Automatic annotation (TrEMBL):
Topological relation to the membrane, as annotated: Multi-pass membrane protein
Primary location class: mitochondrion
The species this protein was found in: Phrynocephalus vlangalii
GO-annotated biological processes: mitochondrial electron transport, NADH to ubiquinone
Function: Core subunit of the mitochondrial membrane respiratory chain NADH dehydrogenase (Complex I) which catalyzes electron transfer from NADH through the respiratory chain, using ubiquinone as an electron acceptor. Essential for the catalytic activity and assembly of complex I.
Protein name in the entry: NADH-ubiquinone oxidoreductase chain 2
Cellular component aspect of the GO annotation: mitochondrial inner membrane
Ranges where the NADH:quinone oxidoreductase/Mrp antiporter transmembrane domain occurs: 23-287
Family: Belongs to the complex I subunit 2 family.
EC numbers, comma separated: 7.1.1.2
Location relative to the cell: Mitochondrion inner membrane
Length: 307
């Protein structure tokens, strides 16, 4: 892609996200999301492979459906309340549809099927963009309407995302798919705690982004795409491989790493609100996802040379 196109695309992605995050009107928020989506399509389809084209179409279709749901929700609400204001989303039906469309845009379960497929079809840099930056706009909208969403909806979606993220990642040998399920699992924590403490949810997603970015960048620098590649990377760059292992453990939420902090705070919040069953479920699903993170670190740490 030539430099002019890259500049236009990058600016559109940044502008779209900022536009959505700073708007108080549903139509402006929607325009921001559309701008964002249209700008990222050429990036996903850049590798000239059939997988990349397939990933682009899948991404486009899901995002388009989610946008249509968003418009339906905001129009219904405006029809009922006479206001296009984001904070005025009072209609129960509209709120539910809006929550589902935002979950679809982020790739949270049960509408997560596109995420692993899209990530597998693109490059590592694009996968990084989709799992981090592309979540900012939907998360900010969910944060704005969090007071109006029924907590039961958020909590059940959160637990479901954790289960799907944990079980889906166990069977993977492709690192991009593993990272996609890791993203779904983390979104589960974010969505679940959004019902009780929206600020904590924002902190959780930011810490996740801070941990995911270096993992993807290191995978790019060592061109690691599968678990098999990972077993041989220590020969070329030991420090990078060791860092990937530690970051993986941090993402899994293992103390004393950074990733443990938001999870501990989330569990604390759940127990304070007398939701002990939910907290127990969250811990159990967290253990399932810990399995695949540990497998990756095991491959890195144990299968090194006698040197």
């Amino acid at each position: 892609i030539n430099p002019t196109s890259i500049t236009i695309i990058t600016l559109s992605i940044i502008m779209g996200t900022i536009m959505t995050m700073s708007s108080s009107n549903w139509l402006m928020a929607w325009i921001g999301l559309e701008l964002n989506m249209l700008a990222i399509l050429p990036i996903i389809s850049k590798p000239k492979t059939t997988r990349a084209s397939e990933a682009t179409i899948k991404y486009f279709l899901t995002q388009a459906i989610a946008s249509a749901m968003m418009l339906l929700s905001s129009t219904t609400n405006a029809w009922q309340t006479g206001s296009w204001d984001i904070l005025e989303l009072k209609n129960k039906f509209s709120t539910t549809i809006m929550t589902l469309s935002l979950m679809m845009k982020m790739g949270a379960a049960p509408i997560h099927f596109w995420l692993p497929e899209v990530l597998q079809g693109t490059t590592l840099q694009t996968a990084l963009l989709i799992t981090t930056w592309q979540k900012l706009a939907p998360i900010s909208l969910m944060y704005m309407i969090s007071n109006n969403i029924q907590p039961a909806l958020l909590m059940s979606a959160g637990i479901l995302s954790m289960i799907v993220g944990g079980l889906g990642g166990i069977n993977q040998t492709q690192l991009r798919k593993t990272m996609a399920y890791s993203s779904i699992n983390n979104l589960g924590w974010t969505i679940m705690i959004m019902a009780l403490s929206p600020n904590l949810a924002v902190m959780n997603i930011f810490i996740y982004m801070i941990m995911t970015t270096p993992i993807f960048l290191m995978m790019t620098s060592t061109s690691t795409k599968t678990l098999q590649n990972l077993t041989t990377t220590w020969t070329t760059s030991t420090a990078t491989t060791l860092s990937i292992a530690l970051l993986m453990l941090s993402t899994s939420g293992l103390p004393p790493f950074t990733g443990f902090l938001p999870k501990m705070l989330a569990l604390n919040e759940l127990i304070t609100q007398k939701l002990t069953t939910l907290a127990t479920l969250a811990i159990m699903t967290s253990l399932v996802s810990l399995l695949f993170y540990l497998r990756i670190t095991y491959l890195i740490m144990v299968l090194t040379s006698p040197m």
